[in-house]
Amino acid sequence: MDIRYSGLSRINHWFSVIFVVVMLTLGYMMFFANDRASGSYAEAAHIGVGFFAFWFLLWRTIYRLKMGFPAHKKQDRRHEFARVVHYLILLGLTLLIITGPLYLFTENEGLAVFDWFTVNLDLTALSIVHEPAEEVHKITGLYVLPVLLVVHIAGAVVTYLSDEGAARS
């Protein structure tokens, strides 16, 4: 029974961490910008990085769901809770990578990727989902995902500091 993540899974995890931290930082900069220019700059960077994060996080989420999670030596409530948190993080990331482009495309706005190119998909026929997609994106990005990440990090610290974590290192 494999109880560890593969090397590829660990690399995926840390690249995801980088993308998520950058995207959250830019999202918060956008949301709390003091002036329109700063907000627009952060938004352009958020969209540009988001384009690449979309493809990576989509692939990573599909890969993780396909490969599953490693089994634990002992199944207890803590491990079950950790599994639920993992799935909720993947769900949150999936919601973000879908709703971000969706709420732009439903207003016929394109994804301008660092002024290199623009991706546009006219989904104005689905304009009824624009507001819900925008709200889901903002609530998930500003509140839900950060809380899940804090719980995930706290769980990792507790596991590492416990006898179980010390035995693995």
Automatic annotation (TrEMBL):
Membrane topology of the entry: Multi-pass membrane protein
Gene Ontology cellular component list: plasma membrane
Cofactor needs: heme b
Compartments where located: Cell membrane
Membrane-spanning segments: 12-32, 44-63, 84-105, 141-161
GO MF annotations in UniProt: electron transfer activity; heme binding; metal ion binding
Name the record gives this protein: Cytochrome B561
